[in-house]
Hints:
Layout: E1 2-5, E2 8-11, E3 18-26, E4 33-38, E5 46-47, E6 50-52, H1 59-71, E7 73-86, E8 92-104, H2 109-114, E9 118-122, H3 123-133, H4 135-143, E10 165-167, E11 175-178, H5 183-187
Parallel strand pairs: 3-8
Antiparallel strand pairs: 1-2, 3-6, 4-5, 4-9, 7-8, 7-11, 10-11
Helix pairs in contact: 3-4
Amino acid sequence: MMKFKPNQTRTYDGEGFKRRAACLCFRNEKEDEVILVSSSRHPDQWIVPGGGMEPEEEPYGAAVREVYEEAGVKGQLGRLLGIFEHNQDSKHRTYVYTLIVTEILEDWEDSVNIGRKRKWFKVDEAIRVLQRHRPVHAEYLRRLTNTCNPDCSSMCGPPNGNTPSSQVTDNNTPHYVVCSTQGSDLVNR
């Protein structure tokens, strides 16, 4: 299903969730510093870069496109951190990936068009900042410690890299499915 809105098309999955994608953009493989961007609606608030998927767009492609547009960064797409469902304000399902930044643009689409800012945060500080206005975005970073990064050991699960699990919470918090899969496996599916 699709809904048209000025300057964008919103896509929905079969269950009526808006299809979204985002990336936690890290400075390096340590995953201890992350870029947040200013909200377009509330420029004094910080958010994780991400947005709606376009028709026929795969989640990983949308995630890379969104961080390029919103944060002005390019990088190496990593693992799928999780699929987060949120029902509080609007019903949406967001695929969240990790990305190691390899290039930072001086001027980028949203900085020029809407004055969007970006800033590096230590992960703990980012969680605190996000918790105030975007708790679902803080949850992305909290889940970081529960997934496998490239340096993890046998805790990661089966040899195919997939370790799905789910958690159901009350209606005020996101529902999510964690699927620790390397980005290259996702691209080749």
